[in-house]
Design brief:
The protein is built from four helices and eight strands. By secondary structure, the chain is α+β, with helices and mostly antiparallel strands. The chain has one domain: Roll (3-methyladenine DNA Glycosylase, Chain A). Strands 1, 2, 3, 4, 5, 6, 7 and 8 form an eight-stranded antiparallel beta sheet that branches. The protein binds a DNA duplex through strand 3, strand 4 and helix 4. GO terms for molecular function: alkylbase DNA N-glycosylase activity; DNA binding. Keywords: DNA damage, DNA repair, Hydrolase.
Amino acid sequence: MVSDKNSVERIIKNPNLTQRIEPDWCDRPSIEVAPDLIGCTLLRQMPDGPLIRALIIETEAYAPGDPACHAYRGKSKRNAAMFGPPGHSYVYLIYGMYHCLNVVTEAEGIGSAVLIRALSLDSLPPQLTPEQAKKPHRVAAGPGKLCRALEIDRSLDGVLYHPANGLWLEHREHSVSEPDLVQTTRIGITKAAEQPWRWYLRDHPAVSKK
DNA sequence: ACAATGATAGTT
DNA sequence: ACTATCATTGTA
């Protein structure tokens, strides 16, 4: 079970068993990619040295024709990456102080993406605030918090998920059992709020909200 | 319940 | 130019 602590430790000890997620895998509807990304690994080569591996615990899908999707009203400077090729990032600033990280889905020209909402980190980034150090399992519990922890901002907008860019994805090493994958409604939106396009690992301590 | 904080989209 | 809104978070 992926949420089991021993499984996480096994993944950390066997990094050579993993396989990078490539753009073609992301070339399908965000509503399919979002649940499939649960249990996959996000890797971040921090600018100042350490490599951080993180299990994806929580995602949300944003689709074409979805009023809650940033791409709903067409292409703009901010959301251009959503219309770009799959397997790239879309990073935006929200509420003037937090960044959010997405995986772009579907072919170029189609505006859709998966928001990464929570991660379980294998190691803690340097320079934690006392607040963060107190609850290490919550350091990446939320889309704004995970970008702060991994030093992700708009300079990483529109880049290919690839080691060369210091940011990439790897496939699951362990399957996620059906009962552990919870599907529910998205958080923090007012439009299309009834769509059940959020997924998370049941009972995982890094889930942003119940 | 609400303030922090800035970019964006829609309206004068 | 002005204003409401926003895929959030921490504090009260």
